[in-house]
Amino acid sequence: MPFEVYLNVAVGGVLTGLVYGLMALGLSVIFGVVRVVNFAHGEMMSIAMFLAVVLFSAFHLDPLIMMVPIAAVLFVFGYALQSGLINPFITRPEHSQFLLLVALAIIIVNVLLIIFGPDARTVQTAYAFDSFQLGPLLVDATKVYAGAAAIVFAAVLFAFFRFTLIGTAIRACADNYTGALVVGLNVNRLYALTFGIGAACVGAAGAMMTLIVDVTPMIGPTYTLLAFVIVITGGLGSMPGALLGGILIGLTEALAGLLFTPSAKSMFAFGILVLVLLFRPQGILGKRPA
Amino acid sequence: MSVFAARLTGDVSRRTMIWLAALLAALVIAPFVVDDYLVTVLILILYLAYTGQAWNIMMGFTGQLSLGHAIYVGLGGYVAAVLFTRYGVVPWLGLFAAMPVAAACGAVIGFLAFRFGVTGVYFAILTIAFAEFARIGFDHLDIVNAAAGLFLPVAQYAHNDLWRLRGSPTMFYYVILTATLAAFVLCRLLITSRIGYFWLAIREDEEAARAAGIDTFRYKMYAVTISAAVTSFAGVFYAFFYNNLFPEQVFNISQSIQMILGPIIGGVGTLFGPILGAFVLTGLAESLNSALTAIGIDLPGAEQVFYGVCLLVVVAALPGGIWPWLAQRLGIKDAGS
Fold this sequence. Notes:
Strand order of the largest sheet of chain B: 1-2
Oligomer: heterodimer
Largest sheet of chain A: 2 strands, antiparallel
Number of domains of chain A: 1
């Protein structure tokens, strides 16, 4: 195969990886602050994907624009979920939290199944078959738009955590729970905000994903696992790590799909995860726990 | 022998013994009373009780959260099924290959995790990763027929062949009942022994356990290998009961999740929790199914939504599971809790 083919596939993989990264960023933010592993993460993304599909098929609204309102809807969902359901569980053991979120995931998958049925749905935008040519490179327009949108969304999020007062307060909760309580932060509200922000990430990522893959109600668990792989590879709790992990996994999947067989591609992602856990358990950019 | 008997029955109240005997008697006569459909439901319940008990050795006793136990079911099933279909090795002998293979796999995962300090959530996700790795690997492994699945020859049998595990559901019922009872006894013996006390110490506070001189690495390795070996029999049973194996099914994460819902709902770390949990969850799913059919709701997924809601309610209301709560009311003491 000519070198250009590899390069094309690699670039496509990196762009898809950016969207993966944004999805995983949500998981990372939630774990980093609330210390709850969101086992319903992929299922939450499938809610966002169905919202995007419905908005597109009913009103011809472009998922790239709708990603903002969809993120807002998911934010409200995440906020309500944390303050109403998950908050009493933050001091419970991991297996108890796990069961709660697995139950939630079961409910989401099957409610979607009742509403939309088992068939795959897709978004066919006007630019679905466009591509950009850059020297020998030929890149799908949808992937370029989705990747760029993911970068913008992540940049806004970095700025929020870095420069706003609420962002600083949330980081304070993550660094030192007791300290945050002592200085008078409303930790429960900040946790709910964080969960909402994590859900908004996955909402925006879900809207973009509809440009790249078909959606079915059963898609959730696959993406929950994928988000885990990415976040742990990059470093659980590290925001740049999640993006880097996303790019790495997107690239690996694309190249493995080309060199071996597409159905075996996630085996390589899991292989990377095992290696990272063994040789750098805190992830590529994660901090070693004290 | 009397040492074992003493450990098995020592400090078990008369009241508990009567309850256990009554339950066992009910389970033994059940196939004569209920119809064939209910027998298969009971088989599923006991299968989940068995696997839940096996998982409980790792999580309930030793505090190591494994979310990838499907890998041991899959390995056990595939080893025994390949030996049977290719070389005619009977399942009871195949078990002597399946158990060491699963135990070795558990030992590898445990060794890597415990040596490299992978704990808590990270350990849980490492176990998922191995199970998923195996699922996709077997999907592309031609000697086990890859994704097309491995089938055991099915024929009408004139009589039950226990030695080759070919026969009626009732035979399988008694096989899995015996296995569940054996696992229950094994767990009781383990948890009242030196090794069990060390496990509980590790579960409660690993640092303190190590400070007290317990070789925590070694005892965690015991837990993962024993748990894996015990789980592998469930795989052998699965293969010969359903007569087919698909990597997509046996290694699937939903298999791992289904396996651990019972003990979590029933009560992690208790001896009776996995059994109670299996009865409650399967009973719940079955009754939801028939209730929805009765009132004429035929929506795919509706049953699962109710199931999820019930899980939510139970885990929110009874954080320790149903059994510790119930045992207190019945005046029974459980060795594990």
